[in-house]
Amino acid sequence: MGELIVFYLLAGIAIATALAMVITRNAVHSALFLVLNLVVVAVFYLLLGAPFVAMVQIAVYAGAVMVLFLFVIMMLGAERVGGATGLRWQAPLAGAMGAALIGGALFAFLQTPAGLAPAGSLPAPLGDPATIGERLLTTYVLPFEITSILLLIAMVGVVVLARDSRSEGK
Amino acid sequence: MVTLTHYLALSAILFGIGAVGFLVRRNALIVFMCVELMLNAAGLAFVAASRYRGLLEGQLTVFFVLTVAAAEVAVGLALMVAIFRTKKTTNVDELSSLRG
Question: In chain B, what are the domains?
Fold first, then answer.
């Protein structure tokens, strides 16, 4: 019972912050609401027995990625850009289609009760750093290495993109 | 008792909110943040499935998605800075040089 209360409380916060992120006019507020949402999802990961993924989520997503977002928003002075929307009939249509998407997904999930596992039959939680590290460096060593190459490519790409082409001759 | 269906429903709601935000907002940076919200909602579904099926693969998938998302954000924000340098705007409606 307590578990259910915690779930609904956190789910409420997650949905409220997601809505606030989409609705608020100021991009900085939007980014901060997204940080809160990511932290709540990290707490869900902890509840689901995935401490490693939760910590990576907080360090990489809520930390590094969102700091980068805030930095770019403030550097470009883009807090208020796009406040006045040029969409007339598209916005309500997007809302209706989003509602239809959520409704369809909820219908599908509630029709097939995927998770009606009795309390005692759940497998023991896994996902401590040692297990994940071992699995990453044995079974999934190829994707792991490809990830490192991907990050290197991204780094090189960012340097190329962010270089000011006008100052190249100097 | 909290079941997998609870988590899948929450994940669907978060994904839907992100999708609507992606379509409605005009600031390219917020559009980008909505993509992050959707990726995150998918991650929640993966970790929940991992817990209820007793498999580690869901968590590993989220780990890989996280690294791809980090790379994507870095490149995307660099693109946005480059666009802002020439166009002086991040409003996606004004970035219509390709007549899209």
Answer: 4-87 (1.10.287.3510)
How far, in Å, CA of B3 to CA of A81, rounded?
41
| Subunit contact A65:B32, Cβ cutoff 8 A | no
Is residue A83 predicted with pLDDT exceeding 80?
Answer: no
- pLDDT interval class at B3 (50, 70, 90): confident
Residue range A6-22, pLDDT digits in tens: 999 999 999 999 999 99
d(CA A160, CA A153) in angstroms, rounded, equals: 11
Assess whether A132 and A57 both reside in one domain. no
Give residue A15's domain range: 1-80
Contacts of B66 in chain A (CB under 8 A): 53, 56-57, 60-61
DSSP symbols for A130-154: HHHHHHHHTTTHHHHHHHHHHHHHH
Does A146 lie at the interface with B, CB-CB under 8 angstroms?
A: no
Kindly indicate whether the ipTM for this predicted assembly is greater than 0.95, answering yes or no.
Answer: no
Restricting to A residues 64-123, those with a Cβ less than 8 Å away from any Cβ of B are 64-65, 68-69, 72-73, 75-76, 78, 81-82, 85-87, 90-91, 94-95, 97-99, 101-102, 105-106, 109-110, 113-117, 119, 122-123
Residues of chain A with pLDDT > 70, as a percent, come to 86
For chain B, the 3-state helix, strand and coil shares in percent, each to the nearest 5, are 80, 0, 20
pTM: 0.89
A144 occurs within a structural domain: yes
